[in-house]
Write a sequence for this structure.
């Protein structure tokens, strides 16, 4: 079964069929869905990335990118409270305060908070790679997806979102992960280098909606880029060798 056939199983109507749902879960656990969104090529980054100027939000964009429904360009400012959407074959690399993001094609992201301080994110569809500034225990950011809620203080996180499934890789840092349909079905993940990726499904299997997953569709070079444009570096001990392993 190829990637297009697998993705058809994610259609809401087909997921009403228990046999198809079971087959999808088997494919996901085997990593078969990890074919859809290759990382950015290093050549697209340009020269060594530097911290964005204070009057800029966007590092790069390609194709159709909308901010609050308006077509964005390199001078568009993005703040907490905005919605960012990408079309087909489109993407954007941007920052809001100390947090930065790569939003891949056909994705929609709602940013909660005020000015340059993000308090929540909601990814309605698509794929998002992000790095977050460290926060105080009382300032944990909530990242909401279709089947999962993720509490973040300071981490690098990659998500892929479908109607019945969320994929989460904690690239480094700490997250508190819970299933939306059963908040007590939860896990605290501490990662140094893509250690514990997870799928969170809409229905439980063997007593839990959370299960192990492979590392898919994002790269260390992208994380280094995101940290650089907000004036940071990836954590000590985070490197290519462990990612490849």
């Amino acid at each position: 079964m190829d990637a297009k056939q697998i993705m058809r199983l994610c259609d809401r109507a087909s997921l009403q069929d228990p046999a198809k749902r079971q087959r999808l879960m088997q494919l996901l656990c085997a990593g078969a869905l990890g074919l859809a969104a290759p990382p950015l090529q290093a050549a697209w980054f340009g020269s060594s990335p530097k911290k964005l100027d204070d009057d800029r939000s966007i590092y790069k964009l390609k194709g159709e990118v909308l901010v609050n429904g308006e077509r964005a360009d390199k001078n568009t400012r993005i703040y907490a409270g905005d919605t960012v959407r990408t079309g087909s074959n489109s993407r954007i690399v941007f920052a809001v305060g100390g947090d930065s993001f790569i939003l891949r094609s056909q994705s929609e992201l709602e940013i909660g908070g005020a000015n340059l301080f993000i308090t929540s994110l909601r990814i309605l569809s698509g794929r998002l790679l992000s790095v977050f500034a460290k926060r105080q225990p009382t300032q944990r950011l909530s990242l909401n997806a279709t089947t999962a809620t993720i509490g973040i203080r300071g981490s690098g996180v990659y998500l892929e979102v479908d109607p019945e499934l969320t994929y989460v890789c904690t690239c480094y840092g700490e997250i508190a992960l819970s299933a939306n349909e059963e908040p007590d079905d939860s896990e605290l993940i501490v990662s140094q280098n893509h250690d514990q990726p997870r799928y969170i499904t809409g229905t439980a299997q063997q007593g839990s909606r959370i299960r192990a997953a492979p590392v898919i569709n994002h790269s260390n070079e992208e994380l280094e880029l995101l940290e650089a444009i907000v004036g940071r570096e990836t954590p000590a001990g985070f490197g290519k060798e462990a990612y490849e392993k």
Observations:
- DSSP finds four helices and 14 strands in the chain.
- The chain has two domains: 1-36, 37-244.
- The mean pLDDT is 85.
